[in-house]
Protein: Adenylate cyclase
Organism: Hyphomicrobium facile
Amino acid sequence: MAIEIERKFVVRDDSWRQSEIGSAPIEQAYFARTPQVKCRIRIFGDNAYITLKSAVGGLSRHEFEYKIPEADAVEMIREFSIEPPITKVRYDVPFKGNIWTVDVFGGANDGLVLAEIELESADQAIAFPPWIGEEVTNNPRYENSSLARTPFTTWTKGD
Amino acid sequence: MAIEIERKFVVRDDSWRQSEIGSAPIEQAYFARTPQVKCRIRIFGDNAYITLKSAVGGLSRHEFEYKIPEADAVEMIREFSIEPPITKVRYDVPFKGNIWTVDVFGGANDGLVLAEIELESADQAIAFPPWIGEEVTNNPRYENSSLARTPFTTWTKGD
């Protein structure tokens, strides 16, 4: 069990691509949501995981994650998913001593690019790269679980 | 992923106790149910598991099970359970070349004793011990998931 503290931002432009140091594709889908827990299968590169996150919102939350065989993950995504899977490519982008992750979404979320940073404490000071836009940490519709239900390409402009 | 084929019976009396060869306590709880999948945490003796079973009924069903740290299981049962956990003691009882499992339920299912046998094929012939009663393989209210929602002690006589 881990407490996860992260902040999330919209990405303003493509200039981060000059400093990315690696990437891997992600496919993930939710198989259950209750008032207590969100349940996800994720394939990240060659590795697969089952993850349970407490549904309590905010900056820090309980998370339980276990590595599982990739073949099981493929089967479970096909058999148990509530909505079509989310697909994205995750890039690692260092900036002034931190590693940012930049997620370039595909499929029904095509056009959406988000950056995340994991923190050791909620009030940790961080240096912001110039390509970082609006913070959306507490905006529920940028959560992956929301993006599965209401993908980016279905949002109406001015929302 | 495994295909699970098992038959389930009510236990008629206590005579199986003369031939039991071992037992372990089980505590388990469901953290999600969807039309596709039932999701369970189980602590069985000193081991703990997360299990996803396809919700399609019948004699055989898809099951995915992974070993997890016991401390995680305790925490997840407390934090994510839909209903109070099921508690039971599971006994191994050999009879004519097969090992039967006998579950003696406690808590809100006190008084219920069920026997199960795992088969290699749905039409496999088996020798029945004298303490085996009515078959309940296809009776949904004897499923553990049902017993969590509607425990045995709440059933009315003549149901």
